[in-house]
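If you are new to this repository, start here. Below is one unmodified record pulled from the training split, so you can see the exact layout before writing a loader.
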Amino acid sequence: MGKRGRASVKRRRSLTDTANLNTEKDARRGVLFALWAFVIWGFSPLFFALVNHVPPLEVVSHRILWSLPVIAVYAIATGRWQRFRQAGRERRTMLALVTATAFISVNWFGFIYAIQIGQTAQASFGYYIYPIIAVLIGAAVFRERITGLQWAAAGLATTGVLMIAMDRGTLPWIALIVAGTFAVYGVIRKTIPVGPLVGVLWELTLVSGPLFAYLWFVGGGAFFADTRTALLLIGCSLFTGIPLVMYVEAAKRLNFSTVGVLFYINPTLQFVSALIMGEVLSLPVLAAFGVIWAGVALYCYDLLRRR
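And here is the target side for that same chain:
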């Protein structure tokens, strides 16, 4: 091989090494973005508990309305504004986004309501079983193949739900609503040809009108009660807009399975938050969580072994 050929090989190797280094840097940044997003969301109940004196719909309203400008500015800064406008002209896309917005709005309300009635652990339980429900919906709707380990994980999650139902004499409706609405929301979003950030921006935009009308109807509600409450309600956006942007950036840089495994940091910290706030869990409920965690472990193992 001549000098020119050797130089060409060295150049290609150098470019490959640079590309690999950039990929590793992106992956590390992605993990950091995901960790920050899930830690913020995980400890958010501790903050939302400070506004327990405010009706849950008002909390959700302020959480969304103050987050909207944060997401809008980020969309403009990253060059997604044109795609946002384009999606608004596509009738089928908008109908799907309206439906998705309805489900995610119920999810947001259910989460805040759970915190206000002292059921944060049950909300975290919902997010634990969400991925497993999503797997079952994926099989039913998209004909996705379910592995044996995933069936086992779904079986353990179902067992955990039944254990809680037997202990309390009723199904854990808040957990099922949180998990079910988030799973259906994910199915709908999977069929919409828009990116995650554009979709989220449209969801916040679509729901902001009714929420603003509601706040107008109640005369501003608790926002004008005192300065502390007003600042806390504005602060709710810190647990929506900022971690959402971090999550989007993480999803761009990491494999789906990696994000799926890291996701469990969120409900785990929500569970810790519930204990910090003094929620009392019976031994049967703790045993049910143990069964669910076993299912989650199987699910995560299955994701990792197929990477």
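Two things worth knowing about this chain: Residues 29-305 form one domain. The two ends are 38 Å apart (CA to CA).
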